[in-house]
Specification:
Length: 172
């Protein structure tokens, strides 16, 4: 099974994904966490401008989906945290994986800009960095997520949210 966390930078995908993976591992040790930023480094797809263009982002997303499919086909559970800006790829995920559960981490852009943990939104505003999703690359809100978590508050109960994701995804 693949639990797919999507949302803009700063929405809490990785934070909640890590907790879900930890709790899921307690139930099923064959569980891995894949994070988009970490996989960019693994694939050496994190240098220069090209990896962050639409074409570069598509290549990265295709690699991540293929890796998830490989792990899923071997009975390994996957928690994947990725921007996931291509709606057609998300729809294909529902057919490619044995089981797929999509969680949209939803927060208004102004909240994300105020958090800006990685400094990406500030860099986009000053034009130091281009190709930022949500700023100069559009982000289509998903229409068919299995679960939507509104992440505007600053102190969510991550452990409880992870339990809610696991319960909603019916990991049996």
């Amino acid at each position: 099974m693949v639990i797919w966390f999507i949302g803009l930078s700063g929405s809490g995908k990785t934070t909640l994904g890590r907790e879900v993976a930890q709790q899921w591992r307690a139930l099923s040790p064959n569980t891995v966490l894949l994070d988009g930023d970490e996989l960019r480094k693994v694939f050496a797809h994190d240098r220069g401008e090209q990896p962050f263009t639409i074409e570069g982002r598509r290549l990265n997303a295709e690699r991540i989906v293929a890796l998830c499919e490989l792990l899923d086909s071997q009975g390994i559970n996957v928690v994947c945290c990725i921007l996931s800006i291509f709606p057609e790829m998300r729809e294909q995920n529902r057919k490619r994986f044995s089981r797929y559960f999509e969680v949209f981490m939803d927060a208004p852009i102004d909240v994300l800009q105020s958090r800006d943990v990685k400094g990406v939104y500030a860099s986009a505003k000053t034009k130091d960095v281009q190709n930022i999703v949500g700023m100069d690359i559009p982000f289509e809100r998903p229409l068919n997520s299995d679960m939507v978590i509104e992440t505007s508050s600053n102190n969510p109960d991550i452990k409880q949210l992870a339990m809610d994701v696991i319960a909603s995804s019916r990991l049996d």
